[in-house]
Design a protein that fits this description.
Elements: E1 11-13, E2 19-22, E3 28-30, E4 61-63, E5 73-79, E6 89-94, E7 100-104
Length: 105
Amino acid sequence: MLFCKKCGNILVPHEKKKKLVCRSCGSKEKASGKGISLKEKVKPTEAVEVVEQTNMKVLPKIEEECPKCHHPQAYFWTVQTRASDEAETRFFECIKCHNRWRKYD
């Protein structure tokens, strides 16, 4: 791994020429030595469809009152919606009316 002499950032291989380029300041250096290789970037040929669907029958139930119909039980799950050093967001769905809401800790 080589570093730029001007700004200290990592030098990366140039796509077409056998040179190393700094992405920050644009400085170029001649590639020398073994172990430097240029690789082709490959784009995926098929689109990946992301489907987020939960089967409510397998989610745990909790004693949580629905703000809409005041039913005392709801399904719940958690998702990390903020930074990793912050608490997860808890999502709820009422068993009776299927109203959804969330709580942040």
